[in-house]
Specification:
- By secondary structure, the protein is an alpha/beta fold.
- It folds into two domains: 3-128, Resolvase, N-terminal catalytic domain (Rossmann fold, 3-Layer(aba) Sandwich); 160-195.
- The protein is built from eight helices and four strands.
- It has helices spanning 17-24, 46-54, 66-69, 73-86, 107-144, 160-168, 174-181, 185-195; strands at 3-9, 33-37, 60-63, 90-93.
- A four-stranded parallel sheet has the order 2-1-3-4, sandwiched between helices.
- 18% of the residues are buried.
Length: 197
Amino acid sequence: MKTYAYIRVSSLDQNESRQLKAVQELRIPKRNIYLDKQSGKDFQRDNYKKLLRVLRKGDLLYILSIDRLGRNYKEIQNQWRYLTSELEIDICVIDMPLLDTRRYKDLLGTFIADIVLQILSFVAESERDNIRKRQAQGITAAKANGIRFGRPEVKIPANFESLVKRWRNQGISLEQLLKACRISKSTFYRRLREMNI
């Protein structure tokens, strides 16, 4: 039997240290800790897939909380069954002792674990939906306050039209024009279309 841990954060700028600290206290070898910095909307995650390939019958998998496994109600249920029934591993959710498959092997224990899993899976997906709604509301409010998203617009020089005329008359090369305007080729052609010159 080997012991593993799975850690997930939703984006590259999020910090996994809280989860890492919890699994390090369990003395899980570093090579057996799998980390993804990716959304929990599905299970198409590189390190999660690698973890599935190494798990063997009787192994033990730790996760800090069920929402670290995923944030999709149906997929969490399916993965839990796949891990426990098909791969025949044990799972321990550190923050929820009722979700420790080593302890409750009888029918009542399985029934209680199933109910808890369904509730926590529902909460995980609901929170994901709420996060998306809050993001959309925040973006709408920011735009209403004049905040722009994306790259800042590239300004073209006042003599752009005259430079274009020189380029068309072969007075300067495209590279010279781009350098003088400090713009990329794609920006140049886009501006030509927009300005209709």
